[in-house]
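Notes from the pairing session

We agreed to fold both candidates in a single pass and log them together. This is the raw record for the first candidate, unedited. Please don't reformat it; downstream parsing expects exactly this layout.

Candidate A
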Amino acid sequence: MLAISDLHVGHPANRAVVDALRPASADDWLIVAGDIGERFSDVERTLRSLRSRFAAVIWAPGNHELWTLPDDPVQLRGQARYRALVELCRTLDVATPEDPYPVWRGPGGPVTVAPLFLLYDYSFRPPGTRTAQEALAAAHAAGVVCTDELLLHPDPYPSRADWCAARLAETERLLAARDPALPTVLVNHFPLRREPTEILRHPEFAQWCGTERTRDWHRRFNAAAVVYGHLHIPRDLSTDGVPFLEVSLGYPREWQPRGAAPAPRRILPATAPPASPLPPGHPLSTLPAPGRPPTVRPPAARPAAVRQPWPVRV
């Protein structure tokens, strides 16, 4: 079972990488943990192609699939857009958060693979802020504002935080109804815990990266592994003995300097993590010295009205 996220196939170099993906065996599954692209047609083309190559494809939406771009022929917004993507996946035989969770019975199984759609509720707040309103004000003051604020509409919910609350309640119900005898692989585009965001140079961006309400889900739902993306910082972490695996491809400017795109991460059977999450000489980050946190360099300031922090164009 392999996993990848943040494909961003609107970039030709990324599309070539995705078109070249192949299973290691005829029985291999592929988890796609969100951000295939922004346009409905790109999502359809990519999932159709991947499903023709892998024994099964499992999709959890990212924020980019939920954007409504002015030039996308599909102008659905919010919940209606998400439901249309789910129906598209069903025509392609791709599993979604709305379908019965599939059970992997290959090497390392049996394990329930649970794709999740949870969004965020602004509870990953930057230091010195106590409310979502203060966190957003701090982001605006710093010039670090997520493009979701312009393009990810929560319709019919009053806000993205309200949509997140509804998704949390529904997902908890579905997870509670699974077979409790089996461990899980929890798949969500956004990290389930705040710790992965602590590497971000702009702490204001973390509020668009998840919710504190999922902090203990790896224990509550017996996770053998947690798979996520969104941050574009592929690395392995561990909490309570559970591996948290960031499986992002990311933008060409992030992976091309290394000479090759990140390969999809093998989830099951479990494999040892790479020697280092980002190799020496990586242009976007530096590996920490002992006892010292890593630093992440943002790109040059953009002239757009909404300035965006590395690592994700959101």
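Candidate B (folded immediately after A)
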Amino acid sequence: MTAGTPLAACSFRWASGSIPRGGRSTVIFMRLSDAGGASAPSMVTFLATPRTQPGGVLSGEVRLTGGDADLAIDRIGLGLVASLHPAHEAGGHQKIEELSQTQISGPVVLGPGEERTIAFQAAVPWGTPISEIGGRHLPGMALGVRTEVTIAATVGRSDLDMVAVRPAPSESRVLQAFARLGFPFKSAVLQASRGEDTHHGLPFLQKIKFYPPGDHAGVMHEVDVTFVPNASELVVELKADQATGHRAHAERFRMSHEEALRTDWPSEIDRWLVTRPGRGSR
């Protein structure tokens, strides 16, 4: 931005970028351009952890390069967001739900041609939806990060750059049990949080749905698994939508993450299925 150029004449422009660096990474590139075509400052966000888990962290750095004149930046932030598509609306508008916002930097003045690197670590909320199981992306689950910069009360935000969120170890034990018992994956959806589940801090819950295995086919339509975790405990809710004439069969397990790792989940799930109402009606 040249001296004397009003900020109103400037705009945020985002594009793909890259940094020569070994290993897998995610990069977001921003350039602040003005109408005069002068050399403009730029910002590149380098995400060193494109895979994470609930309760984990995203680490990386922001690299700033100055333009032709001083630039006063008020704030730089990193947002973890979920990109939601309406389940039953053809061509429905995409909805962006922010899960967390981390301040990377407060006020900073970037001098002409100056290069500056700011390292960061952003906490991943415990209730963050899972988007990948066993290396397989879950259809409909799009999690990503976007960088935002505030200059003179004007906020510019990047496009989303996808991040894979794997189950926490305690959650993974439950999902592995369903795989061992022969439950094929069906879908994953998000729904509004209920009053008793708001302690995980997010406005929605994720339901991971499975088809019943062969010996339960015909008596139930699907089985849902919902995780409601926080730093100290894990709540696992199981629900089976049964055939016509029988109410849904549900049970909640509440325990520490350490207890969840020690639990024999195949046995617990099998016991829960055996006790469902109408089990003998096949």
